[in-house]
Design a protein that fits this description.
Layout lengths: L2 E5 L4 H12 L3 E6 L7 H7 L4 E4 L5 H11 L3 E4 L6 H6 L1 H23 L7 E7 L22 H20 L2 E7 L2 E2 L8 H13 L6 E3 L5 E2 L2 E2 H12 L6 E4 L5 E2 H11 L9 E3 L17 H7 L7 H19 L2
Parallel strand pairs: 1-2, 1-4, 2-3, 4-5, 5-6, 6-11, 7-10, 8-13
Antiparallel strand pairs: 9-12
Helix pairs in contact: 1-8, 3-5, 5-6, 7-9, 7-11, 9-11
This protein binds NADPH dihydro-nicotinamide-adenine-dinucleotide phosphate and guanosine-5'-diphosphate-rhamnose.
């Protein structure tokens, strides 16, 4: 039975990846942090077979201990402070967790493999946020990185450190440059879920409108359930490598509002949407669109859920969820 360790198990991707690996017969270990993590219950309910171990990406000794207990064949490093807007307000902590945390888990993995590179394979959750200021359209594995947020800068550090461990120690390390991926499990701070929850509450008469920041930004949005499959495929290759994972389509937040409000039969969303500078970022990433050719050709991966279906799935789920919560 193959064994996997996932950091970030309480996050959106951690849950989908756990389900995928369990369905493939893996024994799955998850890193969990904090004395009293409120998301622990969700993990226990959703994927009860996952074995949880305490540790933190900022504490390398905890990572060494967790690896020695889990004895994994595959390590998926999904843990991060992942909210871009928050990263300006907590840039040092974001650097510690999202940046140096990658070095910590790579180093713990190197110690664990003890010179035997066949012992373990490593996945790093890199991000399209590393592309930042537009240099090339669409963005691919070779596009110049120009991050525009402390989060993006930290991810660039983690990305190159992963490549460095591959080149220095022969670690089978892959970096997935994933573009935005969403689901009904997406954190409510991200724009897709903020909108799907708001639209659901408007439909139920619980809320009057929603206040957003820049609605002209464009993103390449896919479904998280599809994207975790690409992570797994990377670690099944003979060599570690870097892959862009994206749909190849881009949409503005205006497009997102069109589809979300159409789901509740509203054609003109303008009366429901206001903008506030508090949700604008000091530096914006205006346009993301990925070229997933390499992932398709090498990994045999392609996205299954199109944008409109994804948004409708999220709104429909939130209507049901909010109806229960409001009872
Ligand atoms: P989430 O924000 O949903 O989850 C982040 C996870 O990181 C949580 O489980 C959180 O645990 C954990 N974490 C935070 N701080 C630490 C720490 N100090 N030590 C250990 N774990 C920690 O993110 P997603 O699931 O959406 O994303 C997964 C990864 O992929 C992240 O690294 C993200 O940056 C990256 N990514 C995401 C994309 C997306 O569109 N979703 C696109 C590209 C990259 P806790 O419950 O303890 O806070
Ligand atoms: P992003 O996702 O920054 O791309 O990072 P987010 O959903 O937060 O923002 C997307 C775009 O929407 C604009 N926006 C708003 N965003 C939020 N959160 N709230 C608002 O009210 C709002 N109004 C407009 C933003 O300015 C931005 O342009 C996500 C995270 O999952 C990262 O961890 C990951 O690496 C990248 O995707 C790829």
């Amino acid at each position: 039975m193959p064994r996997a360790l996932i950091t970030g198990i309480t996050g959106q991707d951690g849950l989908y990846l756990s389900e995928l690996l369990l369905s493939k017969g893996y024994e799955v270990y998850g890193l969990i942090r904090g004395q009293n993590n409120p998301k622990l219950d969700l993990v226990r309910r959703t994927v009860p077979a996952v074995k949880l171990l305490n540790g933190d990406l900022t504490d390398v000794s905890s990572l060494v201990r967790v690896l020695s207990i889990a004895q994994p064949d595959e390590v998926y490093n999904l843990g991060a402070i992942s909210f871009v807007a928050y990263s300006w307000e907590n840039s040092s902590m974001t650097s510690d967790v999202t940046g140096k945390g990658v070095l910590n888990i790579l180093e713990a993995t190197r110690l664990y493999m003890a010179g035997d590179a066949s012992k373990v394979r490593f996945y790093q959750a890199s991000s399209s946020e590393m592309f930042g200021k537009v240099q090339e359209v669409p963005q691919r594995e070779t596009t110049l990185l120009w991050p525009r947020s402390p989060y993006g800068v930290a991810k660039v550090f983690g990305h190159y450190m992963t490549i460095n461990y591959r080149e220095s120690y022969g670690l089978h390390a892959s970096s997935g440059i994933l573009f935005n991926h969403e689901s009904p499990r997406r954190g409510p701070e991200f724009v897709t879920r903020k909108i799907s929850q708001a639209v659901a509450r408007i439909e139920l008469g619980l809320q009057k409108g929603v206040t957003l920041g820049n609605i002209d930004a464009k993103r390449d949005w896919g479904f998280a359930g599809d994207y975790v499959d690409a992570m797994w495929r990377m670690l099944q290759q003979p060599e570690g490598d870097d892959y862009v994972v994206a749909t190849g389509e881009t949409h503005s937040i205006r497009d997102l509002l069109d589809v979300a409000f159409a789901t509740i039969g509203v054609d003109d969303w303008a009366p429901f949407v206001t903008q506030d500078p508090q949700f604008m970022r000091p530096a914006e990433v205006d346009l993301l669109i990925g070229d997933p050719t390499k992932a398709r050709e090498v990994l045999g991966w392609k996205p299954k859920v199109p944008f409109e279906e994804l948004v409708r799935m999220m709104v429909t789920n939130d209507i049901a969820e909010q109806a229960v919560l409001s009872r």
